[in-house]
Amino acid sequence: MTLQDTRADLHLHSSHSFDVPDLPSLRPRALFEKALGGTGDFARMDWFTLTDHDTMSGWEELVKGLPEADRALVIPAVEHTLSDRALGFTLHVNLFGLDPDTYADLQRRVETLDDLLTFCATAGIRTQYNHPTWWERRELRRGEVDFARVPGLARRFDVLELNAARTPEQNLITLSMAEDMGLALTASSDSHTGEVGRAWTAAPAATADAFLGSVWRGEGTTHLEALSYAGLVREAHSLIDELVDHGSGMMMTRKASSAGQVWVESLATRIVRSRTVQENPAMRESLRRLLKQVSRPIMKTIMGMESRLDGRLAESALQPYMKARRTKAA
Description:
Elements: E1 5-8, H1 28-37, E2 48-49, H2 57-64, H3 68-71, E3 74-75, E4 77-82, E5 91-96, H4 100-109, H5 113-123, E6 126-129, H6 137-141, H7 150-154, E7 159-163, H8 168-181, E8 184-188, E9 200-204, H9 208-216, E10 221-223, H10 229-246, H11 259-273, H12 275-278, H13 281-314, H14 319-329
Parallel strand pairs: 2-3, 7-8
Antiparallel strand pairs: 1-9, 4-5, 5-6, 9-10
């Protein structure tokens, strides 16, 4: 019997991540229904994964409310932040096939990349090097990122990720490294705004675990819409619509990353909950238009930063991976 390809977006954030607004459409159950029900603007998924930052609380909330048949469609996962001082920069690693108790044990025990890979190999946890051409802005500003170290780090993983939040040039480096090293690839949205299915990985499988096994054996195919100004504007405007229309439902129960983030989210909540906005449709539409107008130059600034990073990479130790791929294409 030949198995049909099935799909999963293996990198997705819910409102349980510190950097995701606590809007109704971004909560775990809403994302699950959007992904598997095909209610979004992107492809329908067959398997569902939440990879919130350093917490599995969203996965726990989701599976508690699902019937057994639906729980079988959920792949337990988390995006782990690794701050190994010996590396010189932060790594984000997706971990698949674990439970919250195991993850809590990992967080207590793991300090270095060696620790992480040893722990995961022993526990049967699959690891994925997320967006290898992403670094913290502060690390880039301080000159802490040694681009020459990236290929060596990539070789230590079985799977690399093509990421919809990276530019085509940055994903080209990841693609070339995977081909050069014989590593499997995934493609993921890494969405923080509910764009589940903007990118996905397809592989033949009848169960969620079999899907992961197929991908890790290199049997998957990738489908990706890379970062662009038009995509950023679309994403920002969709989030603004959600804020204006449903922001009164924000609860802000998860831990934010900073006092500044708390202030911004609190202010936004007060504005959309205000009587002026709630009882005055014209005021609500004016607010929507203003926010969308302001978002455009912000998105242009973000794309400018990514373009400058592309330029740095083209002159770095990673440049051969850009050139090698272009040479093959020609």
